[in-house]
Amino acid sequence: MKRVSIAAYFGIALGLMLSLTTAGYPQSPLDQCKSLDEPTPGVAAASSRSLQAFQEATPEALRAFRELNRNPPMGRIVGGHPVAIEKNFWQIAMVRASVAEPTRSQFCGGSIIGDTWILTAAHCVRNAIVREDPRRVDVIAGTSQYAIGGERLKVSAIHTHPQYNQSTMDHDFALLRLQSPVTKGKVIELAKETTSVSEGTTACVTGWGATFEGGSGAIDLLGVELPIVSTEVCNRPESYGGDVTATMMCAGRREGGVDSCQGDSGGPLSTLVGGRPTLIGVVSWGEGCARRLKYGIYSRVSTVALWIASTTTGSR
Ligand code: 4AZ
């Protein structure tokens, strides 16, 4: 009797540790979402041989385990950490054209999808800042601190998705045509019409947006890994109760704590498709930031593959 219960106890404890390890921290984070923070030797050692360390349950491993699963420090939430621009070379910042160098006033993100094309959110251009006037917005590329360095590009045309609906947020997409090609950046591959991303897939969202709900923006480019959540789960009464449409997708954790936030809008949600970084979502909306059950909502790129192709072809 006693031996059985000890064995069961051990099994439960081991199972719990293993599930916490996989649920709490991905074993192999997306390259673009890797933290630039210096990991402590204990953490680095534990993450490279976590299973072995936990089975052996040395004091060092247990300490590292606690550190891996600690609450994210304030100031760099919403659950995020600094990421390298070199690993996110498609990321751009949208800044107010009315604010001249050396000052840059960032209000949205975006992704380089062609040497003269940026994909962002419709709500980033149909607003009081831009009013869909290309002269009112500039694009910053090639820098992890949007305020410094990189290059500042002018916009020649704005194409808001013709079916964008400001009240439902359906089709929250816009394309920016640049006056000159991006030289400090690279194109990210787009999800195809046929690309499907299954529930639980790890994706990466990046931006200079607020680091907590109601907070101010970040100086350094931040990123965070999020699991994709099915529309069925996201539309449950306790989440969005049916407001998530076919042109949207959800990502985040049930318990909250990790999310995109104000100022990240228009920016990339990416994952690996066939081993290549692929743009699957555009930061769109959500109820607050990082709240429990209130997943972040992203415009679903695969649904507008044809609109993007037809709008951008014939002009790179
Ligand atoms: C915003 O206000 C916003 N949590 C962007 C993303 C999310 C919420 C709000 C998603 O631009």
Can you describe what's shown?
This protein is α+β, with helices and mostly antiparallel strands. It has a domain at 190-303: Trypsin-like serine proteases (Thrombin, subunit H, Beta Barrel), CATH 2.40.10.10. It contains six helices and 14 strands. Strands 9-10-11-14-13-12 form a six-stranded antiparallel barrel. It has a six-stranded antiparallel barrel with strand order 2-3-4-7-6-5. A hairpin with a 2-residue loop joins strand 12 (268-273) and strand 13 (276-285). Helix 1 (2-24) packs antiparallel against helix 3 (50-56) and helix 3 (50-56) packs across helix 4 (59-68). The longest helix has 23 residues, at 2-24. The radius of gyration is 21 Å and the shape is globular. The model is unreliable at 1-27, 42-59 and 61-77 (pLDDT under 50). The structure holds 4-(aminomethyl)benzoic acid. 4-(aminomethyl)benzoic acid is lined by residues 259-262, 264-265, 283, 285-286, 289, 296.
Secondary structure blueprint with pairings:
Elements: H1 2-24, H2 41-48, H3 50-56, H4 59-68, E1 81-82, E2 91-96, E3 106-114, E4 117-120, E5 137-141, E6 151-160, E7 174-178, E8 189-190, E9 202-207, E10 222-229, H5 231-234, E11 248-251, E12 268-273, E13 276-285, E14 296-300, H6 305-312
Parallel strand pairs: 8-13
Antiparallel strand pairs: 1-10, 2-3, 2-5, 3-4, 4-7, 5-6, 6-7, 9-10, 9-12, 10-11, 11-14, 12-13, 13-14
Helix pairs in contact: 1-3, 2-3, 2-4, 3-4
CATH class label of the domain at 190-303: Mainly Beta
Q: What is the CATH homology-level superfamily of the domain at 190-303?
A: Trypsin-like serine proteases
Structural class: alpha+beta
Helix content: 10-25%
The amount of beta strand, in percent, is 25-35%
Apparent shape: globular
Unreliable stretches: 1-27, 42-59, 61-77
The number of distinct β-strands equals: 14
Strand order of the largest sheet: 9-10-11-14-13-12
Bound molecules: 4-(aminomethyl)benzoic acid
| Helix segment tally | 6
Task: For the record, give the distance between the C-alpha atoms at the N and C termini, rounded to a whole number.
Answer: 73 Å
Work out the oligomeric state of the chains in this entry: single chain
Element pattern in H and E: HHHHEEEEEEEEEEHEEEEH
The rounded Rg comes to 21 Å
Biggest beta-sheet profile: 6 strands, antiparallel, barrel
Mean pLDDT: 84
Annotated CATH architecture of the domain at 190-303: Beta Barrel
The CATH topology of the domain at 190-303 comes to Thrombin, subunit H
